Amino acid sequence: MHIRPSAGLLGLFPKLWHAFALAAPSIGPRLQRSEKFTRHLFTAFEPEGGVPEVDMELYGVGMAQPERAWAGSALYRGTILPAFMAIIFGAYAKRDFTVPTLALIGAREPSATLQEMGHRPGRGGNVTTEILPGEGHFLADHRPELIADKALRFFAQKPDRYHGK
Predict the structure, then answer these.
(1) Which CATH class name applies to 7-157?
(2) Does residue 98 register a pLDDT over 80?
(3) I need a labelling partner for 78 at 20 to 30 A (CA). Which of 16, 18, 23, 124 fits?
């Protein structure tokens, strides 16, 4: 969340081209209806067999509906890309997270590279980041048991400040 970008950031842009393309008002919805693009989206940052074929097919069925494809593009344009840019340019660097936060990131996910660049000095307390070797972007879908275990262990270490436990 409090990334200190370096020159390594330039190497990420070829991996993230899809995010910028999806955000484009006319290109994004069209791309989401492409089977080839869908396959790229669900395999580029995943371990072998990470996203089942049936899930890719369901995504394709949903994106065949123009209003869903437009909504997906709007999500990238209005939320995902602005949040990514805010992280890169330090918008969160001086903010404290008041709630204990566990960020689990698959090592095959481009944002793992961002985390490895180091963090800006500043506040940003209460954030624990863990890079999971061999894992991809869709952690909760691909490895729900791993995510549940990590979350349970993380929150078991933190006292419940609302109940004195």
Answers:
(1) alpha beta
(2) no
(3) 124
| pLDDT value for 24 | 96
The count of C-alpha atoms lying within 13 angstroms of the C-alpha of 109, restricted to the half-sphere facing its C-beta, is 20
The more confidently predicted of residues 2 and 26 is 26
- H runs (alpha helix) in the chain: 17-23, 27-32, 35-43, 53-63, 66-75, 81-88, 110-116, 139-142, 144-157
Q: What are the sequence ranges of the domains in the chain? A: 7-157
Query: How confident is the model over 120-146, as pLDDT tens digits?
Result: 555 556 778 889 999 999 998 888 999
CA 98, chain centre distance (Å): 21
Give the 3-state secondary structure of residue 126.
coil
